[in-house]
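Assemble and predict.
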Amino acid sequence: MGLVVSIPTITVSINDLSSLAGADLPPGKLTEVLSDLKCEVESLEGDEITYEVTSDRPDLFSSEGAARAIAHYLGRPVREARHSALPPLELRVTPSVAGVRPFIVAAALRGVTMSAEAIVQIMQLQEKLHNTYGSNRKKASIGIYDLDTVAPGFVYDALPPGEIRFIPLESDREMSGREILESTPKGRDYAGIIQHFERYPLLTDSNGRVLSMPPIINSEDTKVTGESHNILVDVTGTEEKAVEVCLNVVASALSVRGGALQRVEVSYPDRVVETPSAERQRQRLSQGAVRAVSSLDLTTGEIAGLLRRMGLQPEEVDKSTLEVTIPPYRADILHEVDLVEDVVMAYGLNRIEPELPRAVTTGSRLPSSRLRSRVRDLMVGMGFQEVSTYMLSSREVLEERSLMGRRELVEIVKPVSAEFSVVRDALLPKLLSFLGCNTHFSYPQKVFEYGDVVEVRASGARAEGTAVPRTHVAAAISDYRLSFEEIQAVAAALFRNLSMEAVFIPHPSRTFIEGRTAKITVCGREVGTVGEVSPEVLVNFGIACPVGAMECDLSRLTD
Amino acid sequence: MSLSQSEASLLDALRRLGGKADARSVASSTGLPESSVFPLSSLLEAKGYVRTSESMRRVVRLTGEGEYCAEMGLPETRLAKLLSSRGGEVSMDELGELGTLKPKELQAALGWGRRTGTFSVEKRGGKTRVALKADRASELEPVLKKLAAGGEPGAGEWEAVRQLQERGLVTVDAVKQLVMEVTPDGMAASGEVALNVLTSDLLKSGKWREVRLRPYDVSASPPSLSIGKKHPYLEFLEEVKEILIGMGFEEASSPYVESEFWNFDVLFQAQDHPARAVHDSFQVRGVAPSVDAPEALVRRVKAAHESGGDTGSRGWGYDWDIEVARRRLLRTQTTTSSVRYLWAHREPPVKAFCLSKVFRPDVIDSRHMVEFSQLDGIVGDPSINVRHLLGVLKEFASRLGFSEIKFTPGYFPFTEPSIEAYAKHPKLGWIECLGSGLFRPEVLEPLGIKFPVIAWGIGIDRLAMIRLGVSDIRDLNTSNLDRLRSWGWW
């Protein structure tokens, strides 16, 4: 937990919000209500309020949806979404979009009350949906147009970039498809989504007038202004579900602004779909499920009341079951438990009395923690300061500076910096780095670390290996004068006090001085290395005093 | 008034030397170095036991020439010896040829010889001859030898010294010296001696009963010790683990290098969810891709994602791709450890935790680091519900020292309901503390878990920073040795 789900931040005008909700919302009350609705208020200054909203509630990405949710929650009357009596608009899809950007849905909202603030909100809604459900426009992208500037009988096609020419939003001249990708800010940002295709998507009206080149940019001529009354929304993309969610949320928001919904008939080469779908999602909720999950003993009537406060439409099926109709702008109801959460939210979490679980269990540590405890105590007892370094490191430290040589390591594909680009398979290079940072402090310096590393071991003929976690202890002494015996004595004392005898066998290593390094074996098993660190390695780490060091793989003791 | 051992020693010596002596005599009598006599006498003077004054002392030193003569003999001694060996007489020319005496030395010898009547100089047969007239040793010889051996001139020897000085064989310098005289109080003082150290001998001999130990200035600061110590951040993590053990949780672990299957798919996180994009988790190379799970589990998870499977859910409604699930990454959350634990422990009650490292791409600054510690805990049992979740969160927060806690609804892809808990800190106010919830059926059902499980967790580094008084997350793993050495906390 503490998983980072993309957390959108939404800014709305309190006046706008209040007028849409039909309720007066003093700041304290507003903060409390939003918090009950999973929205954490970040700042409140004058007329502007900014809140964080969880990504499962896209309907709250703008003030329209927020106002509607607040109105329901406070029990204020909420006007039902209006439907236009007009027949559906027509939109034809050509075969060429299939390989480029296959899906499109659309809707028209008639009689919308636009304003400067409404434009700000609808743009914010677009942006937040693009970032989340749209996966930065790749999966879904939204276009919004002034319906009165276009002639219905729309065509969704894909054309060679050279054949595309229109004035993009915020420009004053016509550009070709490729030019738009190269010279407009939105073009440059999102070119990656379509530039490799031979054809770019294009939405035009019955006169051939370009509405937009999805997912890049709308045309300047068809844009929505404060004077627009009738709005057309389209959503194109690579995933049908994502595209539908976006349309539902945007259409619902515009319907809060007074728009009456007019559907669009989308004719693909092989099927015809009316969007947005008139089908309503229905989900059953049982009284038993509510009790089992929340511990609350509520009647179906009480449950229904709570669900209504969350904007849902429950109907009693029998004494203990409700069938709930889910509004189109709610994309988060996958299972009965999702409704239970809404019940709990409306009831109030802080009204539920906490209770500790009754089951009797005994606590325990991982078996490896005993050895860890002993070893750390022994090292401290020998006067060593414990150090904690990061598990992430670099090849420069682990291979080059330490002279330990190139080897297989767990490597991050897209690291944020070279310093943290591989996972350490040894502790000693990190200790040496540590010593290199502390040459101006007093000597002797005695440091140790006990920690996990990850080795990569070849697995048969495969190119890539297996990641094997190991537990190591490493210690280093640095002083103006130093002898091999000093560090060797530490290793010997460590194992003796674990009631094992360490045997030292001469062993060459580029990291240590020739003739002053040994491998440490315990019960016939090689467990580590000890020696005086080579001057070349010391210089590599910027250390100007001799260092005696040891490193042991303690996992070998229990292998 | 008590005296230190050295002071008592000096006072004793003065009394023994007749009540008055110079620094040198006292030093040799007590065995104390001459340099410490002066400060000790000041201390005694301050106590009124001794009166100090200065006097001049003559110091006699041999010159180079004097040392030569001390070794080889004065010129007159050498001349007398030579004359004896030649039958009592030698010509001046011969003397010159022999070179036993330098011209100056000869002069000095003859001068002494004439005065004392030991040598005579005669002219005979055209040659000047020196003859031994009397067998008489130079009275300067013994004095010179005495001085050469480091001795000092005795009372009657100063005339000899003057002569030696005239002859350039010694120098005489006047040097100031300290003279101490015991006062009547000092004579009477029976000053108890206060010792510096209690020794094993004093204890064994019983003499400890007779002596006093000198008081020290115990308010003075002692030297600073450099000691072996555990790391405060690691000790804090141990403390947290102890709390969990005390609450009956079993520690669990899981691999650092994980498969996307366990890290995301089992947790019902859709494969096209932004948190799985290459910039939101650390995908790795060098490790063979693998879901690391049996086929039956993979099938059920796939079904849950695509259509809900047998979980009673609609599912996410997309095509689940096993290739995505096989990808390797560094685990982004310890909840992964919790679900692996559930897979291995399918009978209730279940109570486990994992406190370990997780890895996420981020901008590195004072509040964010790509590698940090996270705690995840689970409780599973047939009767578990939201009430128990609130209870566990409250109890854990209280054991961490937070007595006030509040809850708000939250969202995680793998729990429903989800709850965020905030704890009240005396200075910082409400801090976001814990994320939690009941595992979704889409998570539990594929794992074969037939009872509710609550999951809760926290990015523990934030609390570590508060507890350890650190304002930069990177300081938890500081590379500053001085900081570690001087870091005290409890």
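Chain B has three domains: 5-57+174-200, 64-170, 234-485.
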